[in-house]
Design brief:
The chain is of the alpha+beta class. The chain contains 3 helices and 5 strands, in the order βααββαββ. The protein has a 5-stranded antiparallel sheet, covered by helices on one side. α1 packs antiparallel against α2 (42-61) and α2 (42-61) packs across α3 (102-110).
């Protein structure tokens, strides 16, 4: 587990919160894209992927009540994703196999930092992603093949 890289500032944030007991996954994915619009780069798709994995992990391995918060910190160029659940275990990175293990590996590789905060009746799993890295388009156009000699 990584530790926070910096304290969370106040005043430059924009965010959304969801009750995961009633909010479908597709709505949360759309919310990430909307929150980060008009950007449509790989950075946004990374944020969608990490959010989706964190929500799926909470739903699969923990107990309700579940909540998800998405906060953009414009001044520091990052997105903070927080997912609450009341399950007893903590997420951890493990070797992927046929039963899973890829979600936390992706989160660990894409996030600047991530961790778990324990409260009296629940825990919050959080991750922070950079929004200011170089922009790449999600899908590069395929190169045009050279015509075969003699065509």
């Amino acid at each position: 587990m990584r530790t926070p890289a910096w304290p969370i500032p106040s005043g430059d944030e924009q965010g959304l919160e969801f009750d995961l007991d009633v909010t479908p996954d597709w709505r949360i994915r759309d919310a990430v894209r909307t929150l980060l619009a008009p950007d449509d780069s790989v950075v946004v798709e990374d944020a969608v992927l990490v959010t989706d994995e964190m929500v799926a992990n909470a739903r699969e391995h923990a107990r309700p009540p579940w909540r998800c918060r998405l906060t953009v910190f414009a001044g520091s160029g990052r997105l903070r994703i927080e997912v609450d659940d009341s399950g007893p275990g903590d997420p951890y990175v493990r070797e992927p196999d046929l039963t899973g293990g890829r979600g936390m590996l992706l989160l660990d590789r894409l996030a600047l930092a991530w961790g778990v905060v324990h409260h009296q009746r629940f825990k919050t799993v959080w991750a922070e992603l950079p929004l200011d890295r170089p922009r790449l388009s999600p899908v590069a156009p395929a190169p045009t093949p050279d015509p075969a000699p003699g065509s």
